[in-house]
Amino acid sequence: MGRLHFLGSSLLGAVGSAMVPISALLLFSTVDYGAFSVPYLIFAFGWSMTLSAVCDTWARGRGQDLEHHEWNGYSGALLTGAGIAAVVTLGVAVVVLGNWSNAVAAAFGVGANIYRLGARFFHSASKGPQAVLASDLAGIVVFVFTVAAALIFHLGALTGVLAGWALASIASSMLFLPRLRRGSGLIAWVRHRRGRIVPLLAESLLMDAGSIGAPLAMAPFLGTGNFGAYRSISSVAMPIQLTLDPIRPNISQLPPAVLLSRKVLFGVLGVAALMAMACFAVLGLVLPQLHFVAGALATLAHYAVACTAYVAVGFLGHFYYIVSRGILAHGSLVKGRAVQTAMHILLPFSGLFLNGLDGAVWGFVAANAAAALVWPAFLLRQHGRVPNRAVGA
Fold it and tell me: Which of 105, 270, 305, 367 could form a disulfide with 343 if both were Cys (CB 3.0 to 4.6 A apart)?
């Protein structure tokens, strides 16, 4: 039964994380995708900050914190951070999206989804995968029905996806209601855990400078259409997130001897190879035969080889990044991220100025290839060669 719960949680969690960006990829023009990318990048930044300040801080401190009711402080900090992200999104989205209804939907989508993911992290790690099944399923059902209704009544794909994102995230979050107490907000949380938060937050800010700040800085040079095309390349990382993000809380609880074993390394390399082959089969062989394909999907077909390489190196890098967040020394974590961020800024911008959109895309792939080696290198430096007995762990 435990394995079934784990499998169900992984599958539903993957679908819940992927349904918004995949729907955008399938339904949007490159212009709409470019506009949608701005609030979605704000979500990515807010979730990154939440992982550092709340989720990973809590996971690294389990057994050290003396609180008997961990959810009280955790949920208060989580709700505060999600609310801040929603307000920021509203201010930006009303300009980018052009109307208040879509901007409000984007704000609720960002804020409620950050809260949902943070609550899911806590309950999955502390109570097991069965604790998040109902929430994941509720979000998927609400999203599907909302988007379908919007398309049937001709409200537009952008409106439908944003409304579905907001309502699905709210529905999922309702199953993880916060327990607010005096002094349970984000300020109190940070005050008591500053030592663990600061290094994680510093690393996340470096990461976001490369993965979020750099693309936004490139937008004026690319224009809305090309920016949407450029950002669509990153959407092929969705299979990576489908596989790894739902089990991230479980990975964080495993010992280094297991995570750094040869058995795990060969498994990661094997999965990366399979994903890359599947990516090329779809983008390079199937999509070009479908003459009705347009918009963001057509962009992916054009860059099939680049996307394939990105998926292969991205899976390797993302897995060992998750491992590093749990066991790597704080100083090494920040140094590794500084190297990775430099690659994510230098190579795409160099490609952009040398060869426009094509150069930016290949610069992005090259940056991920170089960065994928950073985390294994720092992990080996800290832990050394893993004993053979770890293989059977």
Answer: 367
